[in-house]
């Protein structure tokens, strides 16, 4: 799941060039001339707090998004600007839809 969090973090405008996963929960690091630089990457795809950060960011950019329970599928449906994803987890569905929307925008 951390790969999804990494992509979301980058699509939200955070440059992670040269960084790699740290051994500490949500951190990434890179070595610099002056030492080691650490950055915190929230758990966007696995926590409501992380999903809230994504929703706040999308709202700030006026990007349509919604999450709803699809009872017939017993999963959550997330829609980000017309790109949809399903998952048993709402945060995961949101991150998948967000990544899909961003990849379509960048490749379209």
Quick summary:
The protein is of the alpha+beta class and 108 residues long. It has helices at residues 2-11, 48-60, 90-107, and strands at residues 20-21, 27-32, 35-40, 65-70, 75-80, 83-87. The chain has a 3-stranded antiparallel sheet, with no helix packed on it.
Describe the structure.
The protein is α+β, with helices and mostly antiparallel strands. The protein has one domain (2-107): Bacillus phage protein-like (Bacillus phage protein, 2-Layer Sandwich). Helix content is 38%, strand content 29%. The chain is built from 3 helices and 6 strands. The protein has a 3-stranded antiparallel beta sheet, with no helix packed on it. It has a 3-stranded antiparallel beta sheet with strand order 4-5-6. A hairpin with a 2-residue loop joins strand 2 (27-32) and strand 3 (35-40). Helix 1 (2-11) packs across helix 3. It is elongated, with a radius of gyration of 15 Å. The two termini are 26 Å apart. 24% of the residues are buried.
